[in-house]
């Protein structure tokens, strides 16, 4: 019984990856069109709203390090430490690595509501 479940799981995975590869991500214009149809607002108004949302989100992430789009994702920042120059083993070979300065990394994480829908 277990091999049959494993076969179904691998088939489902293959179908999902094919679907993801075949589909292109929605553009900003496509998103404004869908929102215009859903809300009965003009595309120009929706473009202004999206631009304002992007500005507010960027400012909030810069100020507090965290911004949440309810029901969609959470954007966070974290500090990466500086690394020293030296030798490291990579894939069985010794490689010289340059020093890297400390930097801020921005990442987005899906919220629980989105995870439960997918």
Automatic annotation (TrEMBL):
Organism of origin: Durusdinium trenchii
UniProt-recorded name of the protein: Major basic nuclear protein 2 (Protein p14 alpha chain)
SUPFAM superfamilies hit by this protein: IHF-like DNA-binding proteins (SSF47729)
Matches recorded under Pfam families: Bac_DNA_binding
């Amino acid at each position: 019984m277990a091999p049959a479940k494993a076969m179904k799981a691998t088939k489902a995975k293959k179908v999902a990856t094919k679907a993801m590869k075949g589909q292109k991500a929605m553009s900003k214009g496509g998103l404004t069109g869908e929102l215009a149809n859903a809300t009965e607002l003009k595309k120009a108004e929706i473009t202004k709203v999206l631009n304002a949302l992007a500005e507010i989100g960027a400012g909030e992430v810069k100020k507090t390090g965290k911004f949440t789009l309810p029901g969609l994702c959470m954007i966070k920042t974290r500090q990466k430490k500086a690394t020293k120059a030296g030798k490291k083993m990579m894939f069985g070979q010794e490689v010289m690595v340059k020093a890297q300065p400390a930097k801020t990394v921005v990442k987005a994480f899906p919220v629980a509501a989105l995870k439960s829908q997918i």
